[in-house]
Every structure is written in structure tokens, then in C-alpha cells.
Design a protein that fits this description.
The chain has 243 residues and is of the alpha/beta class. It contains 13 helices and eight strands. It is globular. This is N-acetylglucosaminyldiphosphoundecaprenol N-acetyl-beta-D-mannosaminyltransferase.
Length: 243
């Protein structure tokens, strides 16, 4: 099930349902892009048709920002729980280790994907990490060849958004994997080079606040959240008046 938030499709399912769907898609060989949706991306897509198309064309759009949950509540929708990009990646890896499905990590600085792979093997001893590739290789034929030789079921791409999703869309028909997820800085979190927000911040949906406290220069970016919520209220009011 999907719900539109300011013109952007967002899945309403929680982790367990999504994981089941993702692994069914592997069995059916249905190429699938998982993209994380947050208020900043939705606001950027408002005046950017190519970004809007990119987000809406993805097969699975997870509600990765607390603002999306609030927006759904305002418009009396059915998105009740955040599904974060990093947690989605971890749950996919856990299920992959149980179902004997293989993964490949592409992106990040030199050595980061290797460190992330090492951590995944510690967390899930039976996981099949069939390859890694840093994000500094400019020869795309070589990158594609390395991935295809490894024949992974799942490819995680860490380049930052929307660069990683654009890369996936550009090359996915040439690539062996079935499932593609852009994971931003998740390799850095796994490798330990970047600390994730403490659990209490995660549980309260306040990871944005933790990042803002750690990096005050993010303040301008965080202004997208109040602007987004104002836009959602306006949109909901207009919709009610039309009824």
C-alpha cells in the first residue's frame, strides 16, 4: 500500500511486511529500487520534476523522516512508523543471512566498504558478502564488471542522495542484482567512522536534532521540516475545501 505526501508516493507498510515483499521480489527476479523519503527530499522534489519522477518511479519508498509520519497523521493517512534507511539495510542483511542471499557494498571512501563488510560478518556470521567496491573508481565498466562477476542478489550503494538513486537507475538493467538500496552514510556508521544518534533520539524520531546539535551548519537544511509541515497543512486544508 502507498500513500501520497505532497505528490510523492510513500509505502505505508512496516519493516516485517516490507522485508517479506523484498525477498519475494528476489525470488520473482523483479528489479527493485528502495528509496528513503524524508521532508527534505519531498520539498526538493516540489520544484524538480526529475527528482519527483526518480522518487515516484522507485518500487519501494520508505518513510525515513519523522516529518513524513506527522504529515500522514495531518492528512489522516496510514503511515504510522518510520522505516529508516540504515535500519532497513540492517534488516535486509539479517534476512539475507537467513535466506542465503548475497550482498555487495558499493561506495564510500577507500576502505570504508571493507570495514562495513567486516562489521556485517561479525553481526551476521552466515551472511554472504560477495564483494565491495569503494566509490572512487571512475571506470564504470570496471565497477559493473566487478559487481556482475560477484552475482549478488542485493546491492547497497553509498553515494548520498539522489546521486546514488540516479546511478542505480542509470545502470540497473546492466547489473546482476535484483534489489538495490541507496544507503547514504550507512557504511560509515557500520565502519564506525560516523556515530549514529543515541537510541533515545532514534526512538523519539529526533535523529535530525542530534545531527543538528553535532553539526550546527545543518540548520539551513533542517528548515525544510517546518516548511514541509506548513505545506502539508495547506494541502490538507485545500483538499478538505474541495470535498
Amino acid at each position: 500500500m502507498k500513500e501520497k505526501v505532497l505528490g510523492i508516493q510513500v509505502n505505508t507498510e512496516k519493516y516485517d511486511r516490507l522485508i517479506k515483499e523484498i525477498f519475494s521480489r528476489i525470488e520473482r527476479k523483479e528489479k527493485t529500487l528502495i528509496v528513503a523519503i524524508n521532508p527534505e527530499k519531498i520539498m526538493n522534489a516540489k520544484d524538480n520534476e526529475s527528482l519527483k519522477k526518480l522518487l515516484n518511479d522507485a518500487e519501494i519508498q520508505i518513510p525515513d523522516g519523522i516529518g513524513v509520519i506527522i504529515a500522514s497523521k495531518i492528512q489522516k493517512g496510514n503511515i504510522h512508523e518510520r522505516v529508516t534507511g540504515v535500519e532497513m539495510m540492517m534488516r535486509i542483511c539479517e534476512e539475507a543471512s537467513k535466506q542465503d542471499k548475497s550482498i555487495f557494498l558499493y561506495g564510500g571512501k577507500c576502505g570504508v566498504a571493507d570495514q562495513a563488510a567486516k562489521k556485517l560478518k561479525e553481526l551476521y556470521p552466515t551472511i554472504k558478502v560477495v564483494g565491495t567496491q569503494d566509490g572512487y573508481e571512475n571506470n564504470m565498466e570496471k565497477v559493473i564488471s566487478n559487481i556482475n562477476k560477484a552475482k549478488p542478489d542485493i546491492l547497497f550503494v553509498a553515494m548520498g542522495s539522489p546521486k546514488q538513486e540516479n546511478w542505480i537507475n542509470q545502470y540497473r538493467n546492466q547489473l546482476y542484482p535484483t534489489i538495490f538500496q541507496g544507503v547514504g552514510g550507512s557504511f560509515d556508521v557500520l565502519a564506525g567512522t560516523v556515530k549514529r544518534a543515541p537510541v533515545i533520539f532514534q526512538q523519539l524520531g529526533l535523529e535530525w536534532l542530534y545531527r543538528l546539535l553535532k553539526e550546527p551548519k545543518r540548520f539551513k537544511r533542517q528548515l525544510a521540516l517546518p516548511r514541509f509541515l506548513v505545506e502539508v497543512v495547506r494541502h490538507s486544508v485545500r483538499k478538505q475545501h474541495k470535498v
